[in-house]
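Hi support team,

I'm filing this because I wasn't sure whether my run with magnesium ion finished correctly. The job status page said complete, but I'd like someone to confirm that the output block is well-formed before I use it downstream. Pasting the exact inputs I used:
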Amino acid sequence: MKTNVIEQAVIADPDARLAHEIKERQRARDKRARLLKHLFLVILSFVMIYPLLWLVASSLKPENEIFGDLGLWPSSFEWSNYTEGWNALPVSFTVFYKNSAIVTVLSVIGNLLSCSFAAYAFARLRFDGRTFFFGLMMMTMMLPYHVVLIPQYVLFLELGWVDTYLPLIVPRFLAADGFFIFLMVQFFRQIPRELDEAAMIDGCSPFKIYWAVILPLSLPAMGTAAIFSLIWVWEDFLAPLIYLNDVQSYTVPLALRMFIDQEGQSAFGQMFAMSVLSLVPVLIFFVAFQKLIIRGIATSGMK
Amino acid sequence: MRKFFRRNTAGYVFLTPWLVGFFFLALGPILVSLYLSFTRYDMVSAPVWDGLGNYRYMFEYDRRFWKALEVTFTFVAFSVPLRLAAALGVAMLLDKGLRTIGVYRAIFYLPSLLGASIAIALLWREMFGLNGVINQVLAMVGITGKGWITDPDTSIYTIVVLAMWQFGSPMLIFLAGLRGIPRDLYEAAEIDGTSRFRQFRRITLPMLAPVIFFNLVLQTIEAFKTFTSAFIISNGTGAPADSLLFYTVYLFNEAFKFFRMGYASALAWVLLLIIAAFTALAFATSKYWVHYENERD
Amino acid sequence: MAGLTLRNVEKSYGALTVIKELNLDIHDGEFLVLVGPSGCGKSTLLRMIAGLEEISDGTIAIDGKVVNDLPASKRDLSMVFQSYALYPHMSVRKNLAFGLQNLSMPKAEIARRVDEAARILQIEPLMERKPRQLSGGQKQRVAIGRAIVREPGLFLFDEPLSNLDAELRVQMRVELAALYERLKTTMIYVTHDQVEAMTLASRIVVLRGGKIEQVGTPEELYTRPANLFVAGFIGSPRINMLKATVSGGQAKMADFAAFALPDLGTRDSELTICVRPEAIQLGGGEVQAEGKIRLVEYLGAERLVHIDLASGQRLLFHAQGADSHRAGESVTLGFDRADMHFFDSSEQRVEPALAEVA
Amino acid sequence: MAGLTLRNVEKSYGALTVIKELNLDIHDGEFLVLVGPSGCGKSTLLRMIAGLEEISDGTIAIDGKVVNDLPASKRDLSMVFQSYALYPHMSVRKNLAFGLQNLSMPKAEIARRVDEAARILQIEPLMERKPRQLSGGQKQRVAIGRAIVREPGLFLFDEPLSNLDAELRVQMRVELAALYERLKTTMIYVTHDQVEAMTLASRIVVLRGGKIEQVGTPEELYTRPANLFVAGFIGSPRINMLKATVSGGQAKMADFAAFALPDLGTRDSELTICVRPEAIQLGGGEVQAEGKIRLVEYLGAERLVHIDLASGQRLLFHAQGADSHRAGESVTLGFDRADMHFFDSSEQRVEPALAEVA
Amino acid sequence: ATQSIRHFWWGNPTRDERTFKVIEMFQGSHPDIAVQGETIGWGDYWTKMATQTAGGNMADVIQMAHTYIHEYVQRGGVVPLNDYIGNGIDLSHYDAGANDIGTMGGDLYGINIGATCPSIPYNKRVFEEAGVEFDPLAWTTDDFAAACEKITSSTGGAVTGSEDMSLYMETFEIFCRQAGVDFYSEDGELTMTVEQVAAWWQMWKDLRDAGVVEGKDATVQLDKGMADLGLIRGTTATTFRWANQTGALQGLMQDPLGLAIVPQRAGLQSGHFVLPSMFLCLTRDAGDIPAALAYIDNWVNDEETIKVLGIDRGIPPSQKGRDILAPQLNETDAMVVTFFGETQSQILSTPVIGPKGSGEVRDSFMRTGTEVVLGNMSPQDAADQFIHDAEGILIRASR
Ligand SMILES: Nc1ncnc2c1ncn2[C@@H]1O[C@H](COP(=O)(O)OP(=O)(O)OP(=O)(O)O)[C@@H](O)[C@H]1O
Ligand SMILES: Nc1ncnc2c1ncn2[C@@H]1O[C@H](COP(=O)(O)OP(=O)(O)OP(=O)(O)O)[C@@H](O)[C@H]1O
Ligand SMILES: [Mg+2]
Ligand SMILES: [Mg+2]
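And here is everything the job wrote out:
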């Protein structure tokens, strides 16, 4: 009854009808545009996702089929690559995951904290020597790391840190990665200075400004940094390789390196299976954190 | 004096973690590597002072050093712009609209997640090999391909393609940057009758400049230092015919395969100077194209 | 040149409806001023007309063509944003020239127009600065400049002079009036400044809570406000409002003697009688009361006298020039019946029958 | 509570000096209003006092203590920014509470103060919104709220009411006055609104190009402007300025008959004589001229009459209430000698000797 | 445990499992010695090893490869074991000459823990289907060429006869030795000749030109992992590998594998040899030498240990070891052991292990050979250049 009345009103009122039609037309056009965009994205997605499909397929193939047969579809599904791969090494992957989790979580926290500290100083505070130190920081990124590997190893050895997680974690708490500092600097510089000023007027110490204004306003940057640092630490193998001796303390990427022997028996299927699994936490984290990136913060308290 | 403290305290307090890390963990090894670059050092016995020997050898005799430079410069010249363009393009595409976009973001980031794993190396050789997917596709349009990855003339470009394909991290940074551009500028531009393309050129690009600058500098640094992909794809050899002899691959082999850490250090410092020169150039020109809304001076 | 027709226009943010069923015809070449309390939807309406805000319902037509889904860039209009929205990375000159470059206008013509605008807005020495190097008022002038260099069919101004000093504001107002004279384009102008509204408008729209309260010429609004809200809103200092009870053709307001009421064509026994502060007479008037001066506000040319009546009611008296009243003084005040505005209990204006005016 | 002393304060941006050798004493508990043309340095001065802008030269002392290098956060003051500077990531409530939380105040007290401010500013329904969901005027009120919840020793307001409608502005002005009454804290207030300046100020500072032109009570500034600039700047509508030549004790202005000049203690033969628009008398006055009405501006309570004189000079006449002049009409106008302000050729006020006033 | 030692090896899942089992057993019998097993894959092993060496933090006992042992011996990274042989470590049951290659300048540095020999693994199915008949222990380069031709033509080119081995310096070494020429002299001089190099490259060029070996695209990839071999992918029928890797190869394939010797050159002597696939070394940084010695001794002598280790690291260089393992070998392993045994008679001498820089010479060989494969250089010119470069490399390395 009631809908009827509205419908009649719609038909009776030419303006309303027109508005209705326009909306429909617009919707149709939007739909077309969206469809085209989707089509493009889907094709691109396939190109992007192909290696993962290949990896997953390989992880399910019998060992002797992985390289002989280029097709994606396995002749039989070797789920055992997963079940056996998990325990194929002298130490179970449960332990590797635990190790990786410890190192990664601490590293990400350390990275975000210490790098945002330094970035805040570089981007927002004025002090003598700022440019000089910034230059030094940039320089640390330019030296190929292979040549500092050994001196650094000697240093950590002297400190008695070798074969512990300290060499992997402590540097992250000391803003060792210039990439993140520079990244955050660039984003911090975009935040309206008036907000710092307002916070100063509100009686904020520099730390409070950093904590209550700068950090929340750089969520996209912090999200990006969190994703990168998690992925990079999670996938890092050079530092664990050098500093960890005890297999019990190995991280996942190091463990993955134990499957392949150029000169002898390799377990490619299991290695691929474990590689696929090792992506899972990272992907979950990525999906969770990318929300931060897109939830941009409109700086609209400003005139 | 008090004024000095007042001016500087906050800055140095915040910088403390970095300063500690730099002076206690980074500086020492950096200086040592500088010292080593003037020595012969095989990592087993003690380093032997050699003055400028390493540098002289590098510039006067070492053909592979020049080859490595050539390979690396080619890579930088192609991969950096292409990768940035791909990243920016896709970021623009993903920036607004579409509900399912989170999925795409994840998918587009996948290749970067896979990094330079053995799987990627295998796959890349497969795709760009003689009977690879690429050639199959080309065959469909009537082009006879070749072993792209095994032809010294083209192999480097497959690595460029790999780099481009792994545009995930600059893409993510661009996305974060795009989010920071105030919407009202686009509104003003709309009102001013600006076409989409001009909005991109005159609003998006300049407003994104700090982020573009970041990506440019970082990608350039990273590109100069590219190691893993080339190393893995060429089994650490730089083959075929040294066409994948990236600077750092050469450096790594000198150090760890041929036990010449002193020479490798010298190589590293030359690379550092090259990168520093490019970075300095980028910083110097940045004041003409990078606009920081909040810089007072 | 453009006439605008708004039909049943609505705008909601989620559950919150900001503009409700709005109908309005704006004539081609009209200077329409939009006023209303803070947050009533003026900017929103402007942005909807500009095409920046999606319309939740209804239609907007420019020159008879429905433009609901025409992007802002195709609507041929220019706008001064309340928040300026200057391009932070461009110099003032580039900010001004940007819109013109989109039209692929010859360079010389662009330069001419930009220079002209700079001259009008007195920002010539600032042309090479970036917006962040400008004071608030300077920014606002650049924002105006960006709108006026183009000569579109429709101008939208959102409080364009709010941050300028009085003198400059007068000058700018005159310049805008001159611009309007010259181009005769439709202009829609949001302001909180009564003087601006009164002097510039060919018609004023009073908006409240997303609805139109009254549309009319400035004089109409001032002399015949359609309802209590408009009466209170238009006119500064604010109109005096007094409650009156009606019985037997007599009206009675607290503190005042009862007086004969003309026929108002309403049966309501509760009325509100409004009298403008300048209509108050000290020691005179047809209807009188005793009061005590609470406060004298000094405004230069005039004084605002706040008077407390015995019942606690307060009246505002707009005193001219040389006036020597002091706070604390007792006075007799009054006003004439011709100066009264009557509003019924639903706050709508009721008009005394003409014949009966004594 | 804080008194302020500014000594030789300077501010430069590169080669550009924005504040020049400024000296000013602000008494404890004073309500000081800062006025001046757009871009004259008001905001800059405020920001320097707040400690947000480095001082290029000179000293600022609060309560006798030099604070040049005391950070803003330690100066115990609150400020309303011209650009609001609301925290975009916090709700209105959090924006208001933020400053209080820094004082480690009990939660209940914070809530009380925030609610109180919200009530005063009429933003209670908006408390959970983010700034981007507010209209311009609503944002501005939040900005005011953020300043007033704290009760610091010094308030700095930078055009705090510029984006509010007239009615709200009056209410807010009253609330600020009440706040001032209650706290008796020093307030420094920038405004372009003459009414605000006149009603709120205990003293007004007129700034031009980074220099102080005059400091005084509103009445002083209006009745005895120290120079031509102040005369022109204070008072709306603007004062009329007429060039006069002096010879033999007689002054002669174009269009007017010569008249005897009191002793002004100056030898200059060129003077400027200023007369406020409300001092103009139609058909009366000691000094008279013939003119023609060019334009009548309708302002509700009054009218602004623009009159052209034969020589091309233009005068503004502020006509009261019921006035029926029409454009095109010829009129005789005049004014009294007592209403004249005299300025010498260096634009400084000259005062007629008292005895000689006829 | 009062003593502790570290043992570092490169491995893979099976080897790691076996080795940790051995460690566990050792600790069972030696409760006072704690052994920490450290392992990682081949490529990363050397990076880590170099770093630890530089830091003075090498494991007590390390696994060594013949390609690297010289580098560590000459620089003092590993120590001579002479004093401990028969005095802590019992090697009395070892084959004669089994430790020759681990001996430099008269000192024993690396104990052979698994011998291997060059081999040509071939796809039995393909060979059979193509009807190739040959004696795997005595074929010649001509037989080889004929087999390649037959296979290639019978499969229509889908499977080529062989990988192009022109860049395999290991295979070339046998070719060289067939002519009585060793790569290096005892004192580290380059002794291989331009002629041999040219002849080698020429031989492969001919096969390439005939189209019976794999194309250049596969060839120019150097140091291919097993996964990249044509043999595994089914595109060629043979490759070169050390015999002990046969099991690993077979694991990646469906077709059965056979083993053949590197083809003889008609009229020349045999170039076949055996060498340790791995050594055990005692390092410069070893802290508790008696414990390390006990560990090493257990490794080479304990019966159970030998059983657990199997032939994963190569064939035991003692009859005792081989006897212990014989009953537990699977088909492939048995074939390998048989092959190893059957080729013993062809061994005329032990090659000299390369001096410092020999690794780089090998790289240079592959690089210069690539130019020949790509057709940019003639075999002769390339050989000239390679020898010239190699001499330079050795001079630089010896400084
Ligand atoms: N960063 C800067 N670089 C150069 N000049 C500047 C900068 N900031 C402000 N100025 C100039 O300093 C002068 C004073 O600015 P200020 O903001 O104090 O003006 P104001 O009196 O507040 O004006 P308004 O009433 O328009 O807000 C202006 O002329 C302005 O152009
Ligand atoms: N994004 C939003 N979400 C919810 N409400 C909003 C949003 N944007 C605006 N509003 C509300 O819509 C109403 C109208 O806003 P608008 O900006 O049009 O007001 P206005 O009349 O321009 O006010 P002012 O004079 O203060 O600028 C306001 O009450 C505001 O709070
Ligand atoms: Mg608004
Ligand atoms: Mg200002």
